[in-house]
Structure prediction request, 334 residues.
Amino acid sequence: MNDLYLQLLTYAGAMWRKRWYITLIGWIVCIPGWVGIMMLPDRYESQARIYVDTDNLLSPLLRGLSVEGNVGQQVDYMQRTLLSRPNIEKLMRQTDLDLSLRTANDKDTMVADLARRIAITQNQGRNLFSVSFNDRSPEVAQRVVQSLLSIFVESNVGASRTDIEKARQFLDVVGLAKFEDHYPGELSGGMQQRVAIARALAYKPSVLLMDEPFGALDAQTRGLMQDLLLKIWQEESLTVMFVTHDVDEAVYLSDRLYVLSARPGRVKEVVEIGLPRPREYSAQLTSDFLELKHHVRDLIHREAVVNTGFAEILTDEHGVNEPGPGREWSGNVR
Prediction:
């Protein structure tokens, strides 16, 4: 212990004797260091946090995929969406950064630099993101982040407004503009079917597939929906593939009618419907309509008799549906 104490005293004495040299060396090292630090440019960082509904925002990018993206993929998709070249160029105009540009090459360089310096990270929580940017000027850093958030909000609000206007447009097409604030449970069956048609039309399809859409409706509402569908078809210029078991409905609505056989379901005959358009409900009373209807019914009836086991029951020595001697048909229509 005494040896250690003596050794410390020896070191302390040596440092005291060389104190001026040590002080001089310290100043020689510190002064250049201080000068170097003072010459470093100031860097200011502006940061903001935003909540993004990634399920809706990224659904167009993820459409058709059966897996969900992880956190890294979500951030990557957010960067691609927010830091696209059109958005960066709009950002440059809003912050006046483009005023210093002289050539197209300068513009490309600035776009690449801004995209590199804007950082997007995901915070705790699935839909919470941080957007940050650093610059020598605190005003520029703040303006860039504010403009970036404004562009993001405007693009989403604009898309939402477009969707709302489109929904109102097709609700008006199906005659439900006055019911846009009603819940589905407050609508009748016919109204709900009209909403379903409006929802399908909102996607602007080239082909609209409808499988027994009016099967659950009463006869009066069904007829009105058929007329509405014809009106929409004429105005929107789209192709409708309509599946139905109702012969009158099939003949009234179609230009070309495909009659299918029983299982496995092959095309038995293609019937060309030559009824004139625009087509009104009174067309169902014409002789041409009745002739087509009887032809299609005959095809379906014959197919059903042969393939459902009714042939042996309905056929006797006098043929199908033919009364024997001394017998006659009678019936009531209710």
Observations:
- The longest strand covers residues 44-51.
- The chain has 13 helices and nine strands.
- The chain has three domains: 2-39, 44-153, 203-317.
